[in-house]
Amino acid sequence: MEVLYSDVPSGVGSKGRIRLGSDDERKLLLKGARWAVEHGMGEESDLEKTESGGMIDGADPSLISTKAYERGRSQQGTLGSGNHFLEIQYVDEIYDEKAANSLGLFPDQVTVMIHTGSRGFGHQVCTDFLEVMERAVGKYGISLPDRELACAPFSSPEAGDYLAAMRAAANYAWANRQCITHWTREAFMKVLGRSPQSLGMGLVYDVAHNIAKVEDHVVNGKKMKLVVHRKGATRAFPPGHPELPAAYRHIGQPVLIPGDMGRASFVLLGTEKAMEETFGSTCHGAGRVMSRHQAIRKAKGRAIWRELADRGIIVRSAGRETLAEEMSEAYKDISEVVDVVHRAGISKKVARLRPLGVVKG
Predict the structure, then answer these.
(1) Helix axes of 22-31 and 157-192: crossing angle, nearest 10 degrees
(2) Of 123, 284, 293, 342, which one is the catalytic site residue?
(3) At what angle do helices 119-139 and 157-192 cross, to 10 degrees?
(4) How many domains, in total, are found in the chain?
(5) What is the rounded (10 degree) CA torsion for 330, 319, 262, 196?
(6) pLDDT at position 16, please?
(7) pLDDT at residue 101 in the model
């Protein structure tokens, strides 16, 4: 945990080990995770098990603001803050042995889960385009029940520019996770003196968790192209879907549902029912039951790191406040949430993963 904490930069405003020049950053925004692999951070097999091959077409770096470029330049390869984490876990329960075998999972296996995105770069892209969308609402005479639903017609120049900029941010996020995956493997190699290959450190799956994608769905018996925006939702495509990696097409898309740092995380599979009922989507996590401020108040006088250590979970964090904000009681019980989506049939349980060590930003 010490090596991971020192080798993977984390926390608010953290700066990465990569220094991007303007030309490099533009290439990264077009190539995504492939940029990282081409620079020696990962294998071709990683890209095969990453959504969209780790790169979504249609990104346009010319639409990115100077401020977003400045924020992104130093944050590539960083974990970030809030509910983002890097967690060493172990498989403590298998629900579907055949599916688990296909995913390379088995009881008591040590796994690593990485949860992070496009950092300050993506945040800035969103901020920049919120202003554009708010103007578009008036321009196109759209009536909104809540101004936070700011939008524009899909065929409008505003929407086209936003989607092209958002795709650049998605590519930034895929590259970010790929870099962190590479340094995680290096940390294991450094400590255990064995290669990632001999340790079996292959990628199970990488899936976006805040993205709008153009997809084919059936609505009222008719096949249509839709923009599906998953915010706080995870893609859950069924067996046979053409967008899935060849290795998983027979079982469906791996779905990764992170818990909180004191309880479990889950691996599930996408289903046909998700395509029929939820546009190929399922939950993204447990969801909060306390605001961050409430959690900090509740944790006053407690040593969250020690409470976790007493349960055998080693935690490293940039600050005590982060641990207070992210303590288990601040979230719903992930097991109950996962049981709901499993019973609803929109994703099915494969394995439960328990935390051993957590790096929090």
Answers:
(1) 100
(2) 284
(3) 170
(4) 2
(5) 140
(6) 75
(7) 98
